[in-house]
Design a protein that fits this description.
The complex is a heterotrimer of chains A (894), B (86) and C (120). Chain A has 894 residues and is mainly alpha-helical. Chain A contains 34 helices and 9 strands. In chain A, the strands form 3 sheets. Chain A has a 5-stranded mixed sheet with strand order 4-6-7-9-8, with helices on one face. Chain A has a two-stranded antiparallel ribbon with strand order 1-2. In chain A, strands 3-5 form a two-stranded antiparallel sheet. In chain A, α7 crosses α17, α7 packs antiparallel against α18 and α12 packs across α16. Chain B has one domain. Chain B contains 3 helices and no strands. The chains are: A mainly alpha (894), B mainly alpha (86), C alpha/beta (120).
Chain lengths: 894, 86, 120
């Protein structure tokens, strides 16, 4: 076929895809996606797993290694039919947390660490580079095959320039459709649909060639089976290690390949689609591989020895003169290559822009204003990244010379991305996995993969010197890249798989077990692992001091003006506010972060909001809240019990408080009537005698006597009012203290003398220990003496012993002095002990002795003001009070 | 107070759904076993795979897909109503 | 006016005032401060009128009143209650007080009440 015709066909095909993508984008914007969001499109888009490697390479693989190529399909089959285990959770998390890439997922799970994001990005780019080179190579090879068969017209250019044209073309297509807009969620309906179309082309092409081989060349199924049995193919022995290892590897790869993650998780519209894909995708894989063996067998049989088996699928129809069929196959292969490159470069570009470019940009220009549209930066970063990724692929293709067998490169890439699997699985199922563990695991796995698999793939002497291969790094034989620790004789692939993943897992576990995660990591860990239990993630923000305006400015930079305003307005409305500026509540900050995450990734979104909110986000209290939240199901019962207990405690405390209040209320009533009585009694005398005096004609001595009574009663009234005022001053803390050094002994002497006026008829025996009283206190002597008088008077009033005694005991201890007043009466009943210091308390009317029940209340207030305390000492054989005062009272700062 | 225990006996439909999930979890394990099985019989006097093996693999494959297709509607319909693991 | 009044009041000044007022009117006034002694005196002396303070050491005024009303011998003795707390009035009437005077009172008031009770 003329080369220019071939190029024309390709361009036509690309334009067709372009049109499909364009129309779908238009419909998506209009919100009329309809069947385009069906499980069918989702399943077909998953088919980018089958790249040009599987399209062309599978036949070659089968021709070289028998049935081993099936392992590449078995792994994904097992993963998909077992979707209930892992994929369901992966998709749920991806949707719930608006994950933009696998690097974003890992970074987000381990505390929104951008370091992890960068590492996964670098690993993905390194692993993807040879893979992209592979696609270029297959396209170039297929061009070469076609053009060389019919060398008329324009002579085909050399493979190198074909590769560069393909690379540039793919870059343009991807940039046009992959970076048209920056959605809140990183979805590309146009591209996905175009890929679904390509999936159909691939499948139809393979089935057509297969049918042609089985029924056109051979005589149906029976004949094919006979041919298979007769062919060399069946002589290939299956190695159990490789067989098992490759199933595992392909299973790991289907989960961790950036492009698979992109279509499976990021582009997922509906979790229900996954259920359909769980069997439909394996079915697709099975159909893709159905005719591989027959084609390989017939190809080996029919084509001249030395033909490249990777191209059998193309050369076989050509050799049989089926030009149209060959064209279909060519387009199928072209589809495989382009769809893979497009999605892979979009996925990688998202990672690069979100984890490398934007964080750098924000660091360099942290104070960028509103006019600085970050969206443009993001889009340009992605465009550049796409071009860079393709340039890398092209560079690898040039360096490797396009010689290596396709399958080998594919497996190396698989193993590279599989290094993310331990961190991913641990992140999804083990709350204890932490950032340090993930970091260690990823780095370990990556280094070992590079050393045992990636670098050796360039061949001895290219990246690693011959000496390293035979004698090991630094001449240490146990460091030979294909015989680590002396494990010689292993298949190199399995050797690399075994050591990289084993050490990766060990490093991950050790790192997680030995180091302590930051609060945010624990928070995210709980949220991811328990994504099905707790429907909503924990709140990560405390009420921030962020200005809503600043938040809006930032959101506009990323989401665009309209989207940001809509988001803010609806949030404000939800808060019951007009306008566009909602309060920066934790809930709103969470929503905003989630929206931003969908555009620039969790780590960057988090960092940007942190910048404005100005807090290191998560505190231990938040964590405590989450600890209960996240383990909700498990700890439900414990929580209920705790709550129950707390309720009981609260109810108990309430009941206690209520009882006290009731008692106080009763006491207050009693006090008021007491006050009334205390006021009325002197008033009665005063009134009665003043009336008598007014009436006149009394003998002078009577006038004097009654005048004296009036005077005494008036004084009594004054005293009562003084007490009340004193108490109120003491309680308000407005009392003026006069601090001076005073002898405790003298104060007690004064007090005892003064208290003798209370019931002077009673003779009290006082026991004192004078030496112990030889203490000088720095305090307000008058006030302290007042307390002494009150306590001694109380003893005089209430001690009901026949021969009353009072013992005063003084002790000095650690800068404080205790003074005990202990009488030999019957003391205060237990139920009253808690009340005696309350105001208005007087135990029985029977023991009334002229006070209004304010004495002890005044004592307590004075002691508090003096920096000490007064307490009832139970169990002393009588009423006993203990005063505690500081030896030296320093003036409190006013 | 203890956590309100899940009812000891479930209605028929939820019970079925739970067993379906169990089956769905077991399916990949069964699949792996069947796909590794041929490794056992390569040990004897036979060292290579024949057309019979090819047919075996495709039959197993088709069987797994069929069973998964049978499970999928039940699994996705039950989703969201009860996330409780048992 | 003649008669014997028993005054039970623990506040000496108030007792002195009442004693002066009533004595000036010609009544014989005996004063006691303790409730138990007062109960004995009511039984022994059969006063024409008992003036009873509400709050007393020993027995309260109400308790003394109840005891007086419970004893058939003293049931008919007229009793006047003195109190400084307004709401005690109800309890005093229930216990059987004939008159009730709250402190502070005017001299004329208490004299008029006592006269009225003595003339019954």
């Amino acid at each position: 076929m003329p080369f220019n015709l071939l190029v024309f066909a390709c361009i036509l095909y690309v334009v067709f895809l372009f049109a499909v993508a364009f129309i779908v984008e238009r419909r998506a914007q209009a919100g009329r996606l309809g069947w385009l969001r069906s499980p069918l499109v989702y399943t077909l888009s998953l088919s980018i797993y089958c790249t040009a490697w599987t399209f062309y390479g599978a036949v070659g693989y089968a021709a070289r290694s028998g049935l081993e190529f099936l392992t590449i399909y078995f792994g994904p089959t097992l993963v998909f039919i077992g979707w209930w285990w892992l994929l369901r959770k992966l998709v749920r998390i991806g949707r719930q947390y608006r994950v933009t890439s696998i690097a974003d997922l890992i970074s987000s799970r381990f505390g929104k660490s951008n370091t992890l994001g960068v590492i996964v990005t670098v690993m993905a780019v390194v692993a993807a580079t040879p893979y992209i080179a592979l696609q270029l190579q297959s396209v170039v090879l297929s061009f070469g095959v076609f053009a060389s068969v019919t060398p008329d017209g324009v002579s085909p250019p050399d493979p190198g320039s074909t590769a560069i044209w393909v690379a540039v073309g793919l870059a343009l297509f991807t940039i046009l459709f992959g970076t048209r807009n920056l959605d809140a969620k990183e979805q590309h309906h146009g591209i996905v649909t175009a890929i679904a179309v390509e999936a159909v082309v691939k499948l139809v092409a393979l089935l057509a060639v297969g049918s042609f081989v089985v029924w056109g060349i051979a005589d149906g199924v029976g004949d094919i089976i006979a041919r298979i049995d007769a062919s060399d193919l069946s002589a290939w022995q299956v190695e159990p290690g490789r067989w098992t290892g490759l199933i595992f590897l392909s299973a790991a790869a289907v989960i961790t390949l950036p492009r698979m993650f992109q279509v499976m998780v990021v582009e997922n519209d509906d979790e229900g689609h996954l259920a359909r894909a769980s069997w439909a995708f394996p079915l697709y894989l099975m159909l893709m591989s159905l005719f591989i063996v027959p084609i390989a067998v017939v190809g080996l049989d029919r084509l001249p020895a030395g033909s490249n088996p990777d191209m059998f699928i193309l050369t076989l129809p050509l050799a049989e003169g089926q030009g149209a069929l060959a064209m279909l196959v060519f387009l199928g292969g072209f589809s495989s290559a382009t769809s893979m490159v497009i999605v892979e470069s979009i996925a990688l570009a998202t990672m690069i822009s979100n984890h490398v470019v934007i964080p750098l940009w924000l660091r360099l220009r942290p104070k960028a204003g509103a006019g600085d549209d970050l969206r443009l930066v993001v889009l340009n970063a992605r465009r550049l990244a796409i071009a860079a990724v393709l340039a890398l692929g092209y560079g690898y293709y040039q360096i490797s010379g396009g010689s290596a067998a396709l399958a080998a490169i594919g497996l190396i890439a698989f193993l590279g991305v599989a290094q993310v699997l331990p961190a991913l699985l641990a992140g999804l199922f083990w709350r204890g996995a932490n950032k340090n563990g993930a970091l260690l695991g990823l780095l370990t796995g990556f280094v070992i993969w590079a050393y045992t698999s990636f670098l050796p793939s360039f061949g001895p002497g290219a990246m690693l010197s011959e000496a390293v291969f035979t004698q090991g790094l630094f001449g240490l034989s146990w460091l030979r890249p294909q015989a680590l620790f002396g494990t010689e004789g292993m298949d190199p692939m399995i050797h690399a798989l075994f050591w990289s993943l084993t050490l990766n897992v060990i490093a991950l576990c050790l790192g997680s077990l030995l180091t302590f995660p930051a609060p945010l990591e624990r928070l995210q860990g709980a949220a991811f692992v328990n994504v099905f239990e707790g429907a909503v993630g924990p709140q990560r923000w405390a009420r921030g001091q962020a200005e809503p305006e600043a938040l809006l400015t930032m959101a506009q930079r990323i989401l665009g003006e309209d989207a940001a305003l809509t988001l803010f307005q609806s949030a404000a409305r939800d808060q019951g506010k007009d306008g566009f500026l909602p309060d920066p509540t934790p809930a709103f900050l969470d929503t905003l972060e989630a929206r931003l995450s969908g555009s620039v990734g969790a780590a960057t979104a988090h960092a940007m909001i942190s910048q404005l909110v100005g807090r290191a986000t998560v505190t231990v209290e938040d964590l405590m809240a989450v600890a209960s939240e996240s383990a909700q199901i498990m700890e439900y019962s414990a929580q209920l019990e705790a709550r129950e207990a707390e309720l009981t405690r609260t109810a108990g405390a309430l009941r206690e408080a209520n009882e006290k209040l009731m008692q106080l209320s009763i006491q207050k009533d009693a006090f008021l009537s007491q006050i009334s009585h205390e006021l009325r009694t002197p008033m009665t005398s005063i009134r009665a005698f003043s009336e008598i005096l007014t009436e006149g004609d009394l003998p002078p001595e009577m006038v004097t006597k009654y005048g004296q009574i009036i005077h005494d009663e008036a004084k009594r009234l004054t005293r009562l009012l003084d007490d009340l005022l004193d108490l109120s001053v003491l309680e308000n803390g407005t009392v003026q203290l006069t601090l001076e050094l005073a002898s405790l002994q003298q104060m007690l002497d004064t007090a005892l003398t003064a208290a003798r006026q209370t019931r002077p008829e009673r003779s009290f025996t006082i026991h004192r220990d004078l030496p112990s009283e030889a203490i000088y206190l720095k305090t307000d002597a008058d006030r302290l003496t007042q307390v002494f008088i009150n306590l001694i008077s109380n003893a005089r009033k209430y001690c009901d012993a026949a021969e009353p005694e009072l013992r005063i005991a003084v002790r000095q201890r650690a800068g404080r002095v205790t003074i005990d007043f202990i009488d030999n009466g019957k003391g205060i009943p237990k139920e009253s002990q808690s009340l005696i210091f309350e105001k208005f308390a007087r135990l029985t009317d029977a023991n009334r002795a002229g006070g209004a029940g304010l004495g002890l209340a005044i004592c307590r207030e004075i002691m508090t003001n003096l920096g000490g305390s007064v307490a009832y000492l139970p169990g002393q054989g009588g009423a006993a009070f203990r005063l505690t005062v500081p030896l030296r009272l320093e003036k409190l700062a006013a | 107070m203890a956590r309100p225990k899940p009812p000891l006996f479930l209605a028929r439909a939820p019970y079925r759904r739970r067993r379906l999930r169990d089956a769905a979890r077991l399916l990949p394990i069964l699949g792996l076993f069947l796909l590794l099985l041929p490794l056992l019989w390569t040990h004897g006097d036979r060292t290579s795979l024949s057309a019979g093996d090819v047919i075996y693999f495709f039959l197993v494959w088709l069987g797994l897909i069929g069973v998964a297709a049978g499970f999928a509607p039940g699994l996705s319909s039950g989703e969201g109503t009860e996330e409780e693991e048992d | 006016m003649t008669g014997h009044v028993l005054l039970v009041e623990d506040e000496p000044n108030i007792a002195e005032a009442i004693r002066f007022i009533l004595a000036r009117d010609g009544l014989r006034v005996s004063h006691l401060a303790d409730g138990l002694e007062a109960l004995a005196a009511v039984r022994g002396d059969r006063p024409d009128l008992v003036i009873l303070d509400h709050m007393l050491p020993g027995l309260s005024g109400l308790e003394i009143l109840s005891a007086i009303r419970a004893d058939p011998d003293t049931r008919t003795v007229p009793v006047m209650m003195l109190t400084a707390r307004g709401r005690d009035r109800e309890a005093a009437e229930r216990a059987g007080a004939d008159r009730f005077i709250s402190k502070p009172f005017s001299n004329a008031e208490i004299l008029a009440e006592v006269r009225a009770m003595m003339n019954r």
